[in-house]
Amino acid sequence: MRLLLSAFFAVIAGLCHGIALAAPWDGQPRGWLQLVALGFLVWQLQQARSLSEAAWLGWAFATAWLCATFWWLFVAMNTYAGLAAWLAALAILMLAAVLALYYAVAAYAYVALKPSQALGAAALFASVWMLAELARGVWFTGFGWGAAGYAHINGLARFAPYVGAYGIAALVAFMASLIAIWVQAPMIARRFWMPVMAASVAGIMVWAPHSYSEAAGKLRVALLQGNIPQDQKFQAGTGVIDALRWYGEQMATATAPLVVAPETAIPLLPRDLPADYWASLRQRYSQGSQAALFGIPLVGTQGDYTNSVVGLRPGDAAANEASNYRYDKHHLVPFGEFIPPLFRWFTEMMNIPLGDFSRGQVGQPSFEWKGQRLAPNICYEDLFGEELAQRFADPEQAPTVFVNVSNIGWFGNTVAIDQHLNISRMRALEFERPFIRATNTGETAIIDHRGQVTDSLARLTRGVLQGEVQGRTGLTPFAWWASRFGLWPLWLAGTSAVAIAWIVRRRRLRRYP
To answer: CB–CB of 296/322 below 8 Å?
Structure first.
């Protein structure tokens, strides 16, 4: 009974942890709630009577947290894919339960190796929790959506240019552990640690980090949001016609120097477009002082398909040829853009346009226009900061602006829109680069290099966001080390801390068997 009650409270804390990333009622992150929820889990782990109980609590917490984070997958599977409600809910629960195993292992390791010193215990928890986050975000294609760091795009986000989202997750875990230790410390110890903790928090909040980027000119942009209903988007008689008409009109009449349309804004291969559509579009941008970036499926050299962004600008190839700028999506969505081995039976149960796309290369060149180097990324590719960092390997060719084109209309008017916006904001902070986002249903926005949204369109509306983006040059510490070593420095730091804790534990057991 005690174990079930503890698991129940762990589930409640996990739900709060998920809500803290982007609250369903306003889409805003609440870092304090994430900190309290995680601190409660640490407190529970300190009360655990066995290693199996610790693993159980970590798993229950993480399962609830992840369900509260990506519950909106239900909309795609049930509303648009036609999967039975119970089966869609079960699929989400199973996905969360499997991913939660990383955190079960982290909780087990924490209790098994926990030092007696408060700072050592906090450092160990920060390390195992960060390793669990890294494993979820990297292994088996990676799905780090809803990582703890995204609750802190305000406040602790000032550490993003140094350690990135995963490093912030470790910092938060360290703080949560200290809070949990303080709560159960004797009153005398609390009185000692209270001013220390208060001074530390105050120092973090008032610390003004150094800026590692410089202004690099401004560019006026027009970001298109077609709001094509997802259940019609790929229907030949409705959504396809609507998309071709509306996006064609907007790209023909736009006056901004750069026009950006969302992922698969043009939902057909160039060869399948109406007569003269492709040629007229290319002709429109073959002269003058405007350029366009837009999403479209393309065919590769081997006859394979890619989810791509095409760039049109004066001086490009002739109107009857392919564009000389092309970006192919690298990080494909499992079950949506490629079918994992042994899972074709599951995708065949869904009435949804699925296919096996080919991957583009990591670190593809930027689209150069008006003195800016514009780096496209498609859909949830902005979730993988370590992959975007590869574009900074050569500082002279590093992007000055990131361009995200997305279509998350699959998930309806849910918190998925807010979560994705917050992911882009975190990337802007890590690299000190502005993000411009053109989406089908929202949120189309302009984000500055400090991660602040300067302009946006209302979601689920059709419109054009006119605005100005300030390009940036320079290299943040995160961009420097992640472009050279990926996430290996974090892996090394985390595993080293665990190894040290294991060695200390063994020596202590030998001394006091």
So the answer is: no
Query: Cα dist. 441→226, 258, 409, 452 in Å?
Result: 7, 20, 6, 20
Checking if the pLDDT of 61 tops 70, the result is yes
Domains of the chain, by residue range, sit at 2-210+487-511, 215-475
Taking the model in full, what pTM does it have? 0.91
Q: Tokens 């406040």 appear where?
A: 155
Using DSSP, state whether 367 is helix, strand or coil: strand
The closest of 68, 120, 57, 56 to 93, measured between CA atoms, is 68
Q: What is the DSSP letter of 137?
A: H
- In this structure, how many other beta carbons lie within 10 angstroms of the beta carbon of residue 439? 29
Do 473 and 434 meet the contact criterion of CB atoms below 8 Å apart?
A: no
The set of catalytic residues is 263, 329, 379
Long-range contacts of 1-5 (CB under 8 A, 24+ apart): 3/53, 3/56
**What number does CATH give the domain 215-475?**
3.60.110.10
Contacts of 99 (CB under 8 A, 6+ apart): 62, 66, 136, 143
Number of C-beta neighbours around residue 316 at 10 A:
18
Q: Are 280 and 250 in contact (CB under 8 A)?
A: no
CB 402 within 8 A of CB 432: no
The answer to whether 36 touches 44, Cβ cutoff 8 Å, is no
Determine the Cα–Cα distance for residues 223 and 256; give it in Å rounded to an integer.
9
Residue 216 CB contacts under 8 Å (≥ 6 apart), including other chains = 371, 372, 400, 470, 471, 472, 473
| pLDDT of residue 432 exceeding 90 | yes
DSSP character string of 266-303? S-S-GGGSPTTHHHHHHHHTSSSS-EEEEEEEEE-TTS
pLDDT at 231: 74
| Tens digits of residue pLDDT in 321-342 | 445 799 998 877 765 555 555 5
**What would the pLDDT profile of 305-314 be if each residue is shown by its tens digit?**
889 999 999 8
Q: How far is CA 254 from its chain centroid?
A: 30
pLDDT tens digits, residue range 249-272?
999 999 999 999 999 999 988 888
- 416: part of which helix (H) or strand (E)? helix 416-431
Q: Which residues pair with 259 in a beta bridge?
A: 222, 292
